[in-house]
Design a protein that fits this description.
Rossmann fold; alpha/beta; 2 domains
Length: 262
């Protein structure tokens, strides 16, 4: 795990609400996250986990309250500080593995034309090759996505997210479609990258064991109040914020606590 965590919160939610019309998705969220933490999020479908992730990315705005990055409102569009990996592989089918990673930096440096040339192109190419090597894709840099396995495509998506050197990595059920053996390999990879790149990670998962294994904190999302006649009237919040100690003997008991919450 990262040796030290900043005392100044990297992310802070202050009385955060998110509504879509009359449907309240999240309500009264108050939470802080320090740089270097690995937050895993579990809960039933529709309880606001992915919505919160989109708010961190800047794809969704708070209805009321505040969601802060370094004490300032999170920009209302994605930027270099935050990278995201979805369950569905967000790669370009017509580009090679190497080109898929390079293009993320090309859009950053040359958004109008999407191309780099000369020494800038060479520098980005070398960065992309080094990153692909770190995620285990060096032998496949000239392949196209249709020639890759599911695990390899997800490694490519992770490399795409990391090439821009984000401070925050957002993972929306990134391993849900992978076989158990491949998922185990991906767990080791994401922990290695978290440490090496000094990332703060937020990850949505439906697998409690995965959440406890990867995270330093596990959040359980659920509704604090319910109305069977008007289920949309109340939103979800973080009902459990469980620190992960990495002591194997304590994990089963923590999982029982989370299962009760769910």
């Amino acid at each position: 795990m990262n040796a030290t965590l900043s005392t100044t919160p990297l992310i802070a939610a202050k009385n955060l609400w998110k509504k879509y019309g009359n449907n309240i998705v999240l309500e009264r969220m108050n939470i802080t996250v320090n740089a270097g933490e690995f937050i895993t999020m579990v809960g039933t479908s529709g309880c606001g986990k992915s919505t919160f992730l989109k708010m961190l990315l800047g794809m969704e705005e708070p209805t009321s309250g505040e969601l802060l990055l370094d004490g300032k409102p999170i920009p209302n569009e994605p930027d270099q500080s935050r990278g995201i990996v979805f369950q569905q592989y967000s790669v370009f089918p017509h580009l090679t593995v190497l080109e898929n990673v390079i293009i993320a930096r090309e859009f950053e440096h040359a958004p109008l034309f999407g191309k780099l040339f000369g020494s800038k192109k060479q520098k980005v190419t070398e960065e992309a090759k080094a990153l692909l090597d770190s995620v285990g894709l060096a032998p496949a840099i000239n392949r196209y996505p249709h020639e890759l396995s599911g695990g390899m495509k997800q490694r490519l998506a992770i490399a795409q997210a990391l090439i821009r050197q984000p401070r925050i990595l957002l993972l929306d059920e990134p391993f849900g479609a992978l076989d158990p053996g491949i998922r185990a390999d991906m767990h080791q990879l994401i922990l290695k990258l978290w440490r090496e790149h000094d990332l703060t990670v937020f990850m949505v998962t439906h697998d409690l064991s995965e959440g406890f294994y990867l995270g330093t904190r596990l959040w359980v999302f659920d509704k604090l109040r319910r109305d069977p006649h008007s289920p949309e009237a109340y939103g979800a919040n973080i009902t459990y914020d469980l620190p992960v100690t990495r002591k194997t003997s304590e994990i089963p008991e923590a999982i029982k606590t989370a299962e009760i919450a769910l």
